[in-house]
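If your schedule permits, I should be very grateful for your opinion on a structural question. I would ask you to consider whether the tokens describe a fold that such a sequence might reasonably adopt. Thank you for your consideration; the sequence and its tokens are set out here.
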Amino acid sequence: MLIPMRLRDARRRLPVVDALPRPRSRAILPVAPGDSPRPSIAVWELTLACDQACSHCGPRAGRARADELDTEECLRLVAELAQAGVGEVALIGGEAYLRPDFVLVIRAIREHGMSCIMTTGGYGMTAARAEAMVEAGIRSVSVSIDGLAPTHDRLRGRPHSFERALRALRMIREAGAKVAVNTQINALTWRELPELLEVLAPEQIHGWQLQTTVAHGNAADHPEILLQPHEYLELFPQLAALVERCDALGIRLLAANTLGYFGPYDHLLRRHQGPQGHYLGCGAGRSTVAIESDGAIKTCPSLGGDRNVGGSWREHGFSAIWERAPQIQYTRRRTLDDLWGFCRTCYYASVCMGGCTSVSEPLLGRPGNNPYCHHRVLELAAHGLRERIELVASARGEPFDNALFRVIREPIDPDERARVGAVHVDEPRTSRAIEPYGSGSPVVVAVD
């Protein structure tokens, strides 16, 4: 069974939210210039070179890609982003500061009227780099800090990473930019969040973004660090308490798209992210675009590969890919029929559309069925059920690749669980039909 009948009846009693317009047909139609949404945020992997070795890194960063954009290409791409209507560019990596021309890119972004921010691990940050970034026009820098010092250093794969991250915060703040922190929530870190907040508060951060570790890249090789869906029962009350403490400290707690959805704390966690106060669905390919360091244009910075990369900027230019590539149009054109499992029958399906694609696709091989949902966890718990994930097939060791997992639904009560075992299993689905850029016929891209 997929959902007990009484569970289907219960969802009709849930509070009503304002529904978004129903997505258009998946059919790929010719797109006239100006007929697509304008991207407001571009997340740009400036290089894949990195000075850490994080066990949860999606792109498996370390070495630069073989054919990364040169300085002149980067500056031309900046101009095209501005022409397309992008208002903010977020530089990520790898480590963006490992490119010797990263300050030139920041300056060009600002000269074209766009805001520039950066996410960094901060391991190799220096006062000179911080001062150059600020002079070039960087607005805010978010330093990645995952747990207290022993946990952070273990996850980041370098000794003294925690100490260096805190030092990076101070150098950037002293240089004159705003500073924030982003933290991965996983099996090693989530119980440390309250204590970590007290360590971060004296650093005068203006924001703290929390996101769950997803099962892609290096994290696919370390399933032991992944949260189990049923742990949301304990996690979300803790997050609600953290919001209250952040308010007292003057820090804005921001929930990333991986944290969801429509549970009793959603309005609290997302009150700084729009007047609706609840999750509005994936913005990848609608308001957000991502760029890999070799010029590949894609929807989401946490996904890669043929299913998600729309094309090469070098070959097609930015606007043609944004307006016409089916991989970029996927979130604009998908319908409820693209959902499956619990998500297909959920009361919030037409708004949520299965939550964050970067959670469900690496986990189950395709999007549309997301066990990492607070609403789903609570609904199942009300009927004595929980879900857990179990590894089925290992990843291949490529950037943004994924292992495959199954989702096992079973009784919460351990005695009942031992007696009856699983009551339902969602096996991974290993293909998604897409239409290649510039082609008129659909193909199936296999991921197993």
